[in-house]
DNA sequence: ATATTAACTAGGAATAATTCCTAGTTAGTT
DNA sequence: AACTAACTAGGAATTATTCCTAGTTAATAT
């Protein structure tokens, strides 16, 4: 993988945010530094970075989002505002019985917890 | 929600399979009974059934699939053949600390385990 | 049984997300 | 400096899904 200004800025934009943005959002951010960048370039770089294990793809309601954090963590999605938050659980043992029970070899997992974020719970009681 | 032959067959096709099919696969199956059914009708009915809590949507690598089983269960996806299998884990406590740790109200979760299914592990050693 | 009508249908057009294509450019190597 | 594989912008193509419209029908009321 070769260094390019486009790839570098795509990666930095993603690594600087706490959110889990779409390709389109990343595109808008990168355009502020490289106005001529194309959406295809953003998609290509995101795919290369994800395939290279430098970023993660996360799948939210059938839409692809990206995550610059590569430490093992889980996600909480608010069913009202749709925001995605990181949560850190200690679930190393979660799949320990799968190999003997099912014969599957486990290489990873993704846990998405759903519910209402603090902000949306507060809004509800105000109304 | 009104009864229609189209909806009934869409639902029955989905409830009869162990797989987690796409709308397109369900469309092909239903066509064997109603050759004139349109793909739009399949999508509309799947959405209505999912919104009505009669079936589930599951999200696989950014693609939407459907699941006719509504009992709480988790999924294992083979990273080689991409098949999705049901796994039944007892994880009721998995999110019990989320409310105090993060202030989030939890209403559900989805766990996808990744790895290699039995068949694909066997194929590997044969080659 | 007949009338009524809101919810449905088929078929096809529209939309949206993502990938593909092409000709020109550039980062890294020699 | 020359080389070239990997890159880029821009736009076309593809794919999954939704939307639109005119006609049909399941469920209810008379
Ligand atoms: Mn994250
Ligand atoms: Mn299932
Ligand atoms: Zn929220
Ligand atoms: Zn497999």
Short description:
The structure is a homodimer of 127-residue chains. Chain A has 127 residues and is of the alpha+beta class.
Largest interface: A-B, 37 and 37 residues
> How do the helices and strands follow one another from N- to C-terminus of chain A?
HHHEEEEHEH
Number of strands of chain A: 5
Placed side by side, the strands forming the largest sheet of chain A appear as: 4-3-5
Question: What is the CA-atom radius of gyration of chain A, in angstroms?
Answer: 17 Å
CATH topology of the largest domain in chain A: Arc Repressor Mutant, subunit A
Give the full name of the CATH homologous superfamily of the largest domain in chain A.
Winged helix-like DNA-binding domain superfamily/Winged helix DNA-binding domain
| Low-confidence sequence ranges of chain A | none
Cα distance spanning the termini of chain A: 52 Å
Mean pLDDT of chain A: 94
Q: Structurally, how many domains make up the residues of chain A?
A: 2
Range of helix content of chain A: 25-40%
User: Any ligands, ions or cofactors bound here, and which?
Assistant: manganese (II) ion, zinc ion
Query: What fraction strand of chain A?
Result: 15-25%
Q: How would a crystallographer describe the biggest sheet of chain A?
A: 3 strands, mixed
Give the overall shape of chain A, derived from the CA principal axes: flat
Structural class of chain A: alpha+beta
Explain what this protein looks like in three dimensions.
- The structure is a homodimer of 127-residue chains.
- In chain A, helix 1 packs across helix 2 (23-31) and helix 1 crosses helix 3.
- Chain A is of the alpha+beta class.
- Chain A has 2 domains: 5-67, Arc Repressor Mutant, subunit A (Orthogonal Bundle); 74-126, Dna Ligase, domain 1 (2-Layer Sandwich), CATH 3.30.1490.190.
- Chain A has helices at 5-16, 23-31, 39-51, 98-102, 118-126; strands spanning 56-60, 63-67, 74-78, 84-87, 105-116.
- Chain A is flat, with a radius of gyration of 17 Å.
- In chain A, the strands form 2 sheets. In chain A, strands 4-3-5 form a 3-stranded mixed sheet. Chain A has a two-stranded antiparallel ribbon with strand order 1-2.
- The first copy, chain A, contains 5 helices and 5 strands, in the order αααββββαβα.
- The relative contact order of chain A is 0.14.
- The interface between A and B is large, with 37 and 37 residues.
- Bound molecules: manganese (II) ion (2 copies) and zinc ion (ZN) (2 copies).
- One zinc ion binds at residues 78, 80-81, 83, 116-117, 119-120 of chain B.
- Chain A binds a DNA duplex (30 and 30 nucleotides) through helix 3.
């Amino acid at each position: 993988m070769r260094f390019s200004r486009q790839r570098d800025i795509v990666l930095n934009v993603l690594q600087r945010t706490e959110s889990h943005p779409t390709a389109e959002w990343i595109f808008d951010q990168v355009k502020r530094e490289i106005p001529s960048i194309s959406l295809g370039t953003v998609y290509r770089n995101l795919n290369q970075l994800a395939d290279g294990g430098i970023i993660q793809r996360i799948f939210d309601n059938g839409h692809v989002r990206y995550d610059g954090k590569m430490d093992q963590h889980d996600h909480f999605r608010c069913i009202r505002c749709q925001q995605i938050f990181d949560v850190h659980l200690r679930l190393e043992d979660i799949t320990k019985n799968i190999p003997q029970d099912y014969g599957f070899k486990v290489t990873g997992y993704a846990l998405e917890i759903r519910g209402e974020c603090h902000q949306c719970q507060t809004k509800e009681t105000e109304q």
